[in-house]
Amino acid sequence: MAAQNNKEVDALVEEITGLHAAIAKLPSLNPSPDVDALFTELVTACVPPSPVDVTKLGPGAQEMREGLIRLCSEAEGKLEAHYSDMLAAFDNPLDHLGMFPYYSNYINLSKLEYELLARYVPGGIAPARVAFIGSGPLPLSSFVLAARHLPDTMFDNYDLCGAANDRTSKLFRADTDVGARMSFHTADVADLAGELGEYDVVFLAALVGMAAEDKAKVIAHLGTHMADGAALVVRGARGFLYPIVDLEDIGRGGFEVLAVCHPDDDVVNSVIIAQKSKDVHVSGLHSGRAVGGQSSRGTVPVVSPPCRFGEMVADVTQKREEFANAEVAF
């Protein structure tokens, strides 16, 4: 079995390395038949469950992976900007969101996140205000959540790029319902402080904090300023497409991890649901235990996707079990 897994790992890494080389040679990452074909092939290769542990890859493969994530980020931004401009030409852009080729993925991901929040946050959720950090030029997640799941919620969307927010504002100009509940702010999450305490739920986009240490800093900053009891939704995983989120960093940031979901369908993000707890200190302790792999209510459930909540994995990965059962070493 180990030999078979090694062959699968080697084959997948070789395939992705080849795709990275082909993508890196493209003259532009703007949407085109060649760009679309290569990224479709990449996503198809990365979505199915695989035995690859990207943290154990050699230096060469790690360098390739980091470069690929940067290319994915750039290409995703260009794709969203392209369709945002296209949609803005309509009288009511929100009526034509189906033109975006991955719109159904956002519908599925937002439904998954909402149902995870409703199931695992104590008391459920009825948020008055939500923040989405890293909303980009085409904030489909915020729209779907606002239109389909949270009809009474105000959404504040934050992005570093002023041009992205300018594009986004045009998309909502004709809508008196969702548009009236959306605001867009050009800001670095590191510069947000008091306003973070006003949100019931904060969503953290997968590409905010590209390097692992940057992601950890962002989570720690949110933990410092978010209100006790507020929920945090972190997107990540698919280690060749997005930065991986370390559960230990979430615990050290002052959050209790409530659930983890790894979809096995066309949703390319894994989802982590956490909650800011006054009992969780910046050191990541909760009643003398590390919070990265165990909640105050027991082992963190790894939920079978998509939303098949009756099927939970009782045995989390060995790393999480070891971390949850060990005292924190200072």
TrEMBL record:
Domain of life: Eukaryota
Molecular function in Gene Ontology: nicotianamine synthase activity
Coiled-coil zones: none
EC number: 2.5.1.43
Enzyme class: transferase
The keyword Transferase appears for this protein: yes
GO biological process: nicotianamine biosynthetic process
The reaction(s) this protein catalyses: 3 S-adenosyl-L-methionine = nicotianamine + 3 S-methyl-5'-thioadenosine + 3 H(+)
SUPFAM superfamilies linked: S-adenosyl-L-methionine-dependent methyltransferases
This protein's UniProt keywords: S-adenosyl-L-methionine, Transferase
Biological role stated in the UniProt entry: Synthesizes nicotianamine, a polyamine which serves as a sensor for the physiological iron status within the plant, and/or might be involved in the transport of iron.
Family of the protein in this entry: Belongs to the nicotianamine synthase (NAS)-like family.
The name this protein goes by in its record: Nicotianamine synthase
